[in-house]
Amino acid sequence: MKEFRQKTYNLLRKSEKYFKTDMVYFSKGGFWLMSQFALSSTAGLLLFIFLAHILDATTFGTYRYIISFVAILGAFSLTWMTASVTEAVARGYERTLFRSVSLQIKWGMLAIFASIIVFIYYLSNENSTLGLAVLVGTIGAVMGAVFNTFTTLYNGRRDFRGLFITTGSLTIVQYGALALAALFTHNLILLIATFFLSGMLMNILLYVITVHRLKPKGDVDENSLEFGKKMSFLNIISLTANNIDNIIVFHFLGAANLAIYATALVIPEKLRGISKLAMPLMLPKLTLKENEESAHAALRPKLRIALLMIAVLVILYIIAAPTLFEIIFPKYTDAVLYSQIFAISIFAGIAIGPVTVFVAQKSLKNMQSYSIVVPIVQTFLVLVGTILFGLLGAVISRTVALLFGSAYSYHLSKLGQSKNSEPR
Predict the structure, then answer these.
(1) For the CA atoms of 49, 342, 33, 243, what is the dihedral angle to 10 degrees?
(2) In this predicted model, what pLDDT tens digit does every residue of 231-260 receive, in sequence order?
(3) What string of DSSP letters covers 371-420?
(4) Which of 100, 222, 234, 375 makes the best surface tag, with the fewest CB within 10 Å?
(5) Are 382 and 401 in contact (CB under 8 A)?
């Protein structure tokens, strides 16, 4: 066994000249992160397929609308704290977690208060179902996100196995609860309550278990908390833009068309989500780089490999899409062309590189620019595209907006390097 491990180690080291990265570190952390992603994405896709089959288009579209509405209201809580606390934990400031949770609860009350206003609005317009679903969903989502900050201890310590076990348990319970509920009822309030409240309770339980087991040490990093608050305020625009397309499609084209739109986007979104695995892997190492320029330099060799892999993935999906939809989405075969177009947006996943550098190096100026410009452009494009060209316009606009965001992130990184950004 010892000889086998040594041979594997040597093979990984030799492969580094081709992959331009620390393959030993990647294989240790990457295996568990890939496992986590595979479980989460597979469970999410299976749940989506199940709901698309069992619910009629109008109910399913309305469900997607409520999910997006809750996400937008939840944006008014401190949504960026997980990244900031992870960075602090990686440097030994583990007790930053406790201060973060108390701050998140405080600011989360704003989102819950906003959901109460929405509930009153819908109630006054004789649509208590939507209002109550948004209220219950927001409470569950906000409080669940607060206690989900327990994941920062695993990420910061690079304990990706522990992260997989805890988040995997959360995924199975939350998604399983909603699937089970959908077998017995199509009532939107009950479905939303089951999904978000089960997630909230699991996050609270996992938080208590994690804190008791890992016993966070060290001091509180106030700078990370301040950075997290500033980034959270900027992230309001980004999170709103990422969900506003569903709101726009629902209001201008109706619930049934939103069901088609969401179905067209779901698989490319899952595939693009693979890029998100890079942040927890890269963040602890990039945090230790001397400055932003050296951090970008460490990522540069990996870009060509990433683009080549994405190109292969996009081509394969475009070819396979018609057959896939006949098998898993027989009610939504009209969405095939839209999904093939949106597959191009998978290339936008490379934006995770420069964005992770901005976070690791606390480059607030670049993050401000990225978090304001990209969402505004995205919202404008989707709104205009949907109004003028309907569903096709919405899909094309969303695709173009994502590609713009990726290009803009690299523009900012090059701009920062040309100005020789100072060390932190």
Answers:
(1) -80
(2) 888 888 888 988 999 999 999 999 999 999
(3) HHHHHHHHHHHHHHHHHHHHHHHHHHHHHHHHHHHHHHHHHHHHHHHHTT
(4) 222
(5) yes
